[in-house]
TrEMBL record:
<dbReference type="InterPro" id="IPR043144">
    <property type="entry name" value="Mal/L-sulf/L-lact_DH-like_ah"/>
</dbReference>
<protein>
    <submittedName>
        <fullName>Ldh family oxidoreductase</fullName>
    </submittedName>
</protein>
<dbReference type="InterPro" id="IPR003767">
    <property type="entry name" value="Malate/L-lactate_DH-like"/>
</dbReference>
<dbReference type="GO" id="GO:0016491">
    <property type="term" value="F:oxidoreductase activity"/>
</dbReference>
<dbReference type="Pfam" id="PF02615">
    <property type="entry name" value="Ldh_2"/>
</dbReference>
<dbReference type="InterPro" id="IPR043143">
    <property type="entry name" value="Mal/L-sulf/L-lact_DH-like_NADP"/>
</dbReference>
<keyword id="KW-0560">Oxidoreductase</keyword>
<dbReference type="InterPro" id="IPR036111">
    <property type="entry name" value="Mal/L-sulfo/L-lacto_DH-like_sf"/>
</dbReference>
<comment type="similarity">
    <text>Belongs to the LDH2/MDH2 oxidoreductase family.</text>
</comment>
């Protein structure tokens, strides 16, 4: 979601200020480098809810002790194509990027690398990690489960988290094919962003504590699953996929058992979040050259397909790359609260 009528800033300036604030909060160079990279990715592609606006939250958690300022990541290989990364309760971006690196190492040998992450924390936009693998020539899937904020289909209580699913694949001579989607109607951070902007939410994406749909971000207590009132059973089931891979396989925290990301009094207890990354080496399947040619042909066919009057056909990632180009040229919009926090 783009921020309308907001002040805009150069990406390099934002990168510098975000890094400075994390450094002031005590984050190690390695962990803050990963966090800055992931936040800037989100801000550049237009996912402002998971972009630089999160730096204030992360700094608060570092100050409160929930986040380890100097995490020491460890890796345990569990099989020919599987491993676990222990995040040492640091910034989740650091552990997630490490999982992609480990997954690529495994995939080069075994064809696939499945990597679980435990004792981690909020990782921001899952697409940043799928993209990291694709940029190195691997098909990559990344997911995480989060604290309960989304109702089930026909439900009237929080059950799943926003639980994103992100996929990316390399395309010769082009930027990667990229899909990054929450399994809720919108991410929770979008509600927080709307509160900051005092802007109404779209219809059919959020509900009050009684389960009644609302467009008021200040009344929104839970989200609706992807598909909304009529087809939300699809989003609710997909949210369970993220929980299966991230929490159940790793033995980490279930959605309903998380300390809340926002609003709780306890900011000193780690949350033991789990993530999951699957990395696939095309060379071990059809072959990198054949796969690349097929991807290019597929996307050319997709983008050249007939459209209805006034419509536009785009492949996953097309909107993001266009937004990135625009923001590199015009600057990244930043909400007022974050402008103040960064001293812009």
């Amino acid at each position: 979601m783009a921020i309308d009528n907001a002040a805009r800033f150069d990406a390099d300036l934002l990168r510098q200020r975000v890094d400075e604030r994390l450094a002031e909060a005590g984050a190690s160079a390695e962990s803050r480098q990963a966090a800055v990279k992931a936040m800037l990715h989100a801000s550049l592609v237009g996912v402002d809810s998971h972009g630089v606006r999160l730096v204030a939250h992360y700094c608060r958690m570092l100050g409160g002790g929930r986040l380890n300022k100097n995490p020491q990541l460890t890796v345990e290989k569990r099989g020919a194509g599987s491993a676990t990364v222990h995040g040492d309760d640091g910034l989740g971006h650091y552990a997630a990027y490490k999982a992609v690196e480990v997954g690529m190492e495994l995939a080069r040998e075994a064809g696939v690398g499945a990597v679980g992450v435990k004792h981690s924390s909020h990782l921001g936009a899952a697409g940043a990690y799928a993209l990291a693998g694709a940029e190195e020539g691997f098909v990559t899937f990344a997911t995480t489960n989060t604290d309960s904020v989304v109702a089930l289909f026909d439900g009237a209580q929080k059950f799943h988290g926003t639980n994103p699913l992100a996929f990316a694949a390399p395309v010769p001579g082009q930027r990667p094919w990229l899909l990054d989607m929450a399994t809720s109607s919108i991410p929770l951070n979008r509600v927080m962003l709307h509160r900051s902007l005092d802007k109404a939410l779209p219809e059919g994406v959020a509900a009050t504590s009684a389960g009644e749909p609302t467009t008021d971000p200040h009344e929104a207590e839970m989200l609706l699953p992807l598909g909304g009132v009529d087809y939300g059973y699809k989003g609710a089931a997909l949210a369970g996929v993220a929980t299966l891979f991230s929490a159940l396989l790793n033995g980490t925290t279930l959605d309903a058992d998380f300390l809340p990301m926002y609003g709780g009094d306890d900011i000193s207890t780690p949350r033991n979040m789990g993530h999951f990354v699957l990395v696939i080496d095309p060379d071990k399947f059809a072959g990198r050259a054949l796969f690349g040619a097929a991807m290019a042909q597929y996307l050319a066919s997709l983008r050249g397909s007939a459209v209805r009057e006034g419509g536009t056909v785009m492949a996953p990632g097309d909107r993001e790359w266009a937004e990135m180009d625009a923001r590199r040229a015009r600057g990244i919009p930043v909400d007022p609260d974050t402008v103040r926090f960064l001293g812009l």
